[in-house]
Amino acid sequence: MKSEFLDPAVARYIVDHSTQPDPLLEQLITETLAATGDSAGMQITADQGVFLTMITQLTAPEVAVEVGTFTGYSSLSIARGLSGGTLHCFDVSDQWTSIARRYWEKAGVADRITLTLGPALETLAAFDLPIDLAFLDADKGNYPAYYELLIDRLRPGGLLMVDNTLWSGRVADPAESDSVTVGMREFNDLVREDPRVTVVILPIADGLTMIRRN
Ligand SMILES: C[S@@+](CC[C@H](N)C(=O)[O-])C[C@H]1O[C@@H](n2cnc3c(N)ncnc32)[C@H](O)[C@@H]1O
C-alpha cells in the first residue's frame, strides 16, 4: 500500500473500490515482482493506473509523454486511454522496458507507443513536439530539471502529472531531513510558485501532483 499517510483501512478501501486491474495488468504485476524483486515497489498502484487511463480518455492527447517507464504499468494505462495520439516513453533501462514492450504487444497498443532509451535529461531535451499530457515518474533528484523541460514543451492547457510528491507523507513532517525529502519539498515549492501553472496535489498512492500549463 503506497498511501502510507492515510489510515491503512481507508487506503485499502480506496484501492478495493476502484476499478480492478484486468488479467493482463495482474500478470504484469506478478511478472514485475518476480523479475525485479524489491524494485517492483516502483510500479504505480492499480488505482493510479485507472486514474491515468481516465485522465487520458478525458484529455484526448495527440502527444503524450512518460518519463520513467520501468516494466510498463503506467504506459499501458495511458496508452489504453488514447484515442488516436501517441505516447512517447523515456527510460534508461533496456532490461526493464523490454518487459514493458512485451506487454504493449500483448495489449495491442504497441503501435501507439514510442520508446527512447537513455538519460531522459538528454533524450527529452531533443524532443521537440508540443506536449498535451505528461507523466513524470523517474529519478526524483532530477524532478526540477525534468519539470523545466516538460513545462517548456507543454502546450497551454496541457497537463503534467508528477508521481511520489508526498514521499510517504515525509514532505509534511518537519522532523524528516533526508536529501530526497528535502528535494521533494523544494520541488513542490518550486511548482507552487511558478506563475505559468495551476497546481493541486492529490493524495492518491504516494502523492500525485496535477499541473496545468496556464
Ligand atoms: C519509479 S520507476 C517508473 C515506474 C513506472 N512508471 C511504472 O508504472 O511501473 C522509475 C523509472 O525511471 C527510470 N530512470 C531512472 N533514472 C533515469 C534517467 N536518468 N533517465 C531515464 N529514466 C530513468 C528507471 O529506469 C525506472 O524504470
Automatic annotation (TrEMBL):
UniProt EC number: 2.1.1.-
Alphabetically ordered keywords of this record: Methyltransferase, S-adenosyl-L-methionine, Transferase
Protein name: O-methyltransferase
A Pfam family assignment: Methyltransf_3
Domain of life: Bacteria
InterPro entries from the UniProt entry: Cation-dep_OMT, SAM_O-MeTrfase
One example of a Gene Ontology biological process annotation: methylation
Source organism of the structure: Nonomuraea guangzhouensis
CDD domains from the UniProt entry: AdoMet_MTases (cd02440)
Class of this enzyme: transferase
Gene Ontology MF: a single term: methyltransferase activity
